[in-house]
Amino acid sequence: MSDSNVVVITGANRGIGLELARHYAAEGCEFIGVCRQSSEELAGVAGQVIDGVDVTTDAGIDKLKSGLAGKRISLLINNAGLLQDEQLGSIDFDSIRTQMEINAYAPLRVAEALAPLMGQGSKIANITSRMGSIADNDSGGRYGYRASKAALNAFGKSLAVDLKPRGIAVAQLHPGYVKTRMVNFGGLITPEESARGLAERIANLTLENTGSFWHSNGEELPW
């Protein structure tokens, strides 16, 4: 395998994923962007783009593994996500299932598939949300998004335990309320600000604090 510093980001074609791509490309990393549909911006910063990848399917995961064959991954960022809204009395269970597939099951699929390409010193960052915190929920609603991010947090914690003996650290990271298309650009911070904070948290991730749940500003969040 190559010994290069390879960073893989899912959902890298826009928003937070694209800003993280720009950050790691500027650091001189070999950045590989994974997405369903590429963008001109992503193509401009990525050393390689693996597009047409649906990470919720076996075929998509197989395509991802084929595209990364022979690489040694130093950092995997599971960033692809979906936010939909459900209110009590009009819950769409198909919407909840879709969010579970994209927000929870897909990152676990990707991590399991790519873990053999990672080794001592590698890291996995799951972009989750404080809305996945049960202790922090004081506003209700968002049943699918909250449940899917809580499941992702649980998956990430188990990954941290299981991968620690192999020298791989795992973090669950809340990006903040970011001005992206997901929230109709109504957030409090820019994608650039969020990406800087996330990158700092990733830089500080070690086997000693693996499995933690952090805000991009450095605050440790409750489960």
Strand segment count: 7
Helix content: 25-40%
Report the total helices.
6
Q: What value does the Rg take, in angstroms?
A: 16 Å
| SSE string, helices as H and strands as E | EHEHEHEHEHEHE
The computed structural class is alpha/beta
Query: What is the spatial order of strands in the main beta sheet?
Result: 3-2-1-4-5-6-7
Given the C-alpha coordinates, what overall shape results?
globular
Uncertain runs: none
Please state the average pLDDT score. Answer: 93
C-alpha termini separation: 37 Å
Proportion of β residues? 5-15%
> Biggest β-sheet: count, sense, barrel?
7 strands, parallel
Report on this structure.
With 223 residues, this protein is of the alpha/beta class. Helix content is 38%, strand content 15%. The chain has six helices and seven strands. The protein has helices at residues 15-26, 40-45, 58-67, 93-114, 143-163, 191-203, and strands at 6-10, 30-34, 48-50, 73-78, 123-127, 169-174, 213-215. It has a seven-stranded parallel sheet with strand order 3-2-1-4-5-6-7, sandwiched between helices. α1 crosses α6 (191-203) and α4 runs parallel beside α5. The longest helix has 22 residues, at 93-114.
Provide the fold topology:
Blueprint: E1 6-10, H1 15-26, E2 30-34, H2 40-45, E3 48-50, H3 58-67, E4 73-78, H4 93-114, E5 123-127, H5 143-163, E6 169-174, H6 191-203, E7 213-215
Parallel strand pairs: 1-2, 1-4, 2-3, 4-5, 5-6, 6-7
Helix pairs in contact: 1-6, 4-5
Structure keywords:
223 residues, 7 strands, 15% strand, seven-stranded parallel beta sheet
